[in-house]
Amino acid sequence: MSTIDFSQKINSTSTRRRVAIIGAGLVGSLSAIYFAKRGWDVLLFELRKDLRVPESTPSYLHRSINLALSARGISALRIAGSNLIDVVLSQATPMKGRMIHTGEGKLHSQLYGTFGECTYSVDRAKLLMLLLDNAEEFKNVKIYFEHRLKRCDFDAGVLDVENINEGTSSKIEADLVVGADGTYSTVRTQLMRVVRMNYQQEFISHAYCELRIPPKRNEKGEFEFAMDPHHLHIWPRHTFMLIALPNLDKSFTCTLFMPYEQFDAIKTEGDLIAFFQLYYQDALPLIGEQNIKKDYFLNPKGSLISIKCSPYHYKDRVVIIGDAAHSMVPFFGQGMNCGFQDVEILYEILEQHNINPEKPQINNINTDNTKEMKFRKDLERALDTYTQFRHIDVTAICDLAIAKEIRGMVALAVPESHNSAVHYGKLFHYAVFGSSAEMETTKFLGECGRRIDHFGYFCDVGVGIAVWQL
């Protein structure tokens, strides 16, 4: 095994402790910013190529659902500083409610609240590039693309990392490992070797495919939105649905959710057009027949998975966050938001336990060992606190998002009484606009879920619950 001297990239005489973050996606990049601000030396590893390199961009396209930024994510970005949230919101489109498109072609607006509540449609690629740029502004952050984590010796604090271009492997030392490497996390797999992890995964019967509504030209020949841009548009059709979120270029990113069997049944362009003429008559002219033929057969049909596990850490050595810890289906629009909130809460807990990234100066071996042991014990307590506190919140959202095997495609049920309507409204605000403390009230959330299951099926892809009778 060859060894690359990563200490040359970050000063080997540094008095700061080192954190190795695996995964430079949205959550990993934000985590790098938080740790860098706290004073850690940060090594950020990513298997894929750098999105900011033009030739790498196509590999990131057509692979993920458009994002709705809400309260949890906004809070984490705001605390990250550097006016990050201001830049993000300046590039986002506010959505004040849902626009339900019925089978009869009627439109019904449902506002999220009476106090101006809204979520924000954001471009995943632009947001990731912004976070990467911000992370690289810190001198104590180094990012390594096209590097694969092979294995971890957590007790020794050593990682084996492979440069996939050169085919060489290196041993990396780190005081702490943060796994932000997504749904199929290598860090989580390695963590399973050293802890008695409870693990559950479920693929749902639905897949998704991205489509696009292009901007239209007005009477002056200028581009404008084809629909109201300040709504999340939803076409619910029993076992499947179409959604659309606005983009800054005045287009809409659409996502079609259907069981795999229905995707498989559409084999020809004729089948596709006939399907949309039957179920999405008003959407077809907005997308355009030629556009839909190209996008539907070109873009992949992505699978949807829910993952829950516990614990999220091992001793004082490693912690997993984001989809690596809790991958959720997108029917509450909280995957990214919960991942961002993971970073914020982990940061707060490290602060509460006075985790100081400064290494003790080498003056007296006995004194230094005592300080090191205290650091390790404090860090282990902090990570244990994080697991205990965070697991309650994200498990509640995962369970609500999967919504009884996505039966919510059926109906967006109408409550049968005023009390039920109150529960719907409260559940929406808890899930989308609530704080972490509020999400701890799992008893209340469970009661809401039982009421919803009693009255019918529910779902609002992207942001919450839409209440509408088809």
TrEMBL record:
SUPFAM superfamilies listed in its UniProt record: FAD/NAD(P)-binding domain (SSF51905)
List membrane-spanning regions.
19-36
> FAD-binding domain location, by residue?
18-350
Q: Which GO terms describe its molecular function?
A: FAD binding; kynurenine 3-monooxygenase activity
Keyword field contains Metal-binding = no
Supply the alphabetized keyword list. FAD, Flavoprotein, Membrane, Mitochondrion, Monooxygenase, NADP, Oxidoreductase, Pyridine nucleotide biosynthesis, Transmembrane, Transmembrane helix
Organism of this sequence? Ambispora gerdemannii
Cofactor(s) essential for the protein = FAD
Q: What PANTHER family does the record point to?
A: KYNURENINE 3-MONOOXYGENASE
GO biological process, any: kynurenine metabolic process
Identify the InterPro entries for this entry: FAD-bd (IPR002938), FAD/NAD-bd_sf (IPR036188)
Asked whether the UniProt record includes Oxidoreductase among its keywords, one would answer yes
Task: Write down what this protein is called.
Answer: 4404_t:CDS:1
GO cellular component, alphabetical, reads:
mitochondrial outer membrane
Task: Quickly give the catalysed reaction.
Answer: L-kynurenine + NADPH + O2 + H(+) = 3-hydroxy-L-kynurenine + NADP(+) + H2O
